[in-house]
Design brief:
The complex is a heterodimer of chains A (279) and B (230). Chain A has 279 residues and is mainly alpha-helical. In chain A, 65% of the residues lie in helices and 3% in strands. In chain A, helix 7 packs across helix 8 and helix 7 crosses helix 9. The longest helix of chain A has 26 residues. The N and C termini of chain A lie far apart (139 Å). About 32% of the residues of chain A have low confidence. Chain B is mainly alpha-helical and 230 residues long. Chain B is globular, with a radius of gyration of 19 Å. The termini of chain B are far apart. The N terminus of chain B is likely disordered. Classes of the chains: A mainly alpha (279), B mainly alpha (230).
Amino acid sequence: MTLEDILRLKRAERPSAEFWSQFDRELRVKQLAALVEKRPWWRTISLGRILGGVRRFHLPLGATAVLAATLFSVRDFQAPKSSTVVAPSSAHVLQSGGLTVASAVSMREVLSDHAEPALINVTGPAPDASEDLAPVVPPLVLGAERTAASTGGQFGSMVGVAPHADEPSVFVSSHGRGAVEKFTELQSADTLLSRRLLSPARGFETRVLPARSKPVEPLAQMKVPSGSRRSNLIASATLAATTVPVITSERSARALSDERIYDTSSRVNARGAGVLVKF
Amino acid sequence: MVEFPFAPLRLPRFDPVVMDAIKILGPKTLVASPERQLEADSDMQIVHRVQAGDVAAFDRLILKYRERVFSIVYHMTSNREDAADLTQESFIKAFQSIQRFGGQSSFFTWLYRIAVNSTLSHLRKGRLRSFFSLERVDSDEPVSKEIIDALTDKTDADRDAFVHELQEKLNDAMQKLSTKHRTVVTLFEIEGLSHQEIADVMDCSVGTVRSRLHYAKQLLQAELQPYTRT
């Protein structure tokens, strides 16, 4: 008798029929429980379904993605243009669309020899002026104006709008003043363009804006309480030191002769904020 | 058996045991004997019916394989209750995952794989019951009767006691083996699977199967020395 024969004996180990009937009942119950049990959500996820759903909406998803990317890129492209119109004083200048830009472009010919930017505030009734501008300005110029309007950098350098918010947004230089003078001369000249476009009767005006001071931080303007207390103490001490009775000072002045006064004052050499005493 | 009134859930269940069985058995094509091939074809037809919604057809698979699956699990765990639970669990896993069974292997190999993986996972968790239960040996079976007659020359009463003692010794010797060696011995000596089938079920090479089988037999031989006669 070998080991294999003994092991083969285990094949004869068989459960009874009652065991199998109970086994079937339990298996049925477990099958039903497995069918009706609420599965966790992560077990209900089917990768095939997800991929199928994505495949079904492939075209709309792609179109939406392209549209979103386009909107973001357009918004990012327009962002620097809006930042050039930060200055409140120049905002209403730029709001009159084509006319303002047309004036600026026409000014570019005048200002082209100036390296530094200058501020020129040009205002005017936009709708009427634009209507009048149409027959005068050739189409090529209008195209150039639109180009200039789209390129905020050129316009900013011409009008002198600072790109950063912390810098003074509007400033006037000597070249700017010269440009204004030239512009005034141009306006006063007897040319068709200046008469029809840049006359004050049509709403144009040229003026030099005052230079603006740097904005001060609100926190820097606040006074420290200790500083106010210190100033109060110094003020009271100074008052006590300087309040000499008038009678006493007059009496002393009378008692002193002119020579002595001169001698005393020559010894005390007061210059500026300092006092030099000689002995 | 009672007709099963509900349709199976089509949603796949990502059970690690089943996934492992699919992963292992997926790309392989088992080399099977003609009888096994016929059996596999018959099983595949039933599987297709179940996949088409004929849930009652799965009962035929249960009836066909429950004893074999139970036998594997029972000889691996040496406990009847554990074996019953694990066998039921294996059938439920197969039922829930049958939509993903593509027929790359035979159904019984796939079912064996699920059962073996479930049992190994169960044994790894150490949830074994502390006692071992023994099934009654069917002494009417010719093979077992022949073996018992050869082993004993005693009366019927003494013979029953001797068979019970031999069963206990066999169980003890089997439990001294590691789970992998025990599985190899069970599948080869008791279930009668070929080396290739065992290698497919256990996801190892045929050489590994042979090596484990040789080592396990040496240990069992040493344990059962008093009962082996040449």
